[in-house]
Amino acid sequence: MTEEGADEGTDSGRPALADQRGVETVYQPAEDSDLLARTAAERVTSGDRVLDVGTGSGYVAATLAEAGAEAVGVDLSPLACREAAENGLPVVRGDLVSPFHENSFDLVAFNPPYLPTPAEAEWDDWMEHALSGGEDGRRLVDPFLAAVSRVLAPGGEALLLVSSLTDPDAVRAYARENGLGSEVLATEKHPYEELVVLRFSEI
Amino acid sequence: MKEDLMDIICCPLDKHDLDLDVAERDDEEILSGTLTCTECGERFPIEDGIPNLLPPDMREEAPA
Hints:
heterodimer; A: alpha/beta; Rossmann fold; globular; disordered N terminus; B: mainly beta
């Protein structure tokens, strides 16, 4: 998705916020969501309880529901929550995994905002929030890794989509500090980045 | 929201159970109402069928 803004001609390489306002306010599924959804769908069995964090339009949750899981979405954006609900998904407006009980999920999937973004370019609208990962791309990745263990059922796992732009090795090192072992489940090369699905589970 | 969601949601502040107070429902779902933490008493709205379990300081419409 990094190339989307290239032909819009802004210095940041991404579309000007004004160009997006009123056009798209909820992140729509792209290669990253698709890779995460396909990878996660292979790992769920019928009746598994799964959570899609930052569900956006609800694409990953819907894919997991089709695979037989009981899928719930959570998103910070009221617009995303509305769209996911209209797509027939159970959805909660909340901050990462904070509104869920401990041991609730067999699998938690998260396609976070992961694009490193200069500080001065941030915080103008919901789409910006859905794309920007802060200066190191890990603005929401790190809090997620610090919190996700609590909601995983015994033997449960978290699947996280990151980009080569987000420094997957640093992500895995931070997870280890939080008691999570990791492995690479899938990779996919794109013109400006490599997408990586990481799997985390308690050590 | 469907009522079985109550099994997995909790107060985002202290992780205790929530009490459900239904204002409006149809055959399948709770359309509006209030979720109240059994421990701290914080109240969370259900609007258009969607429970808003953001911490109170994150509830504004604009992204923080």
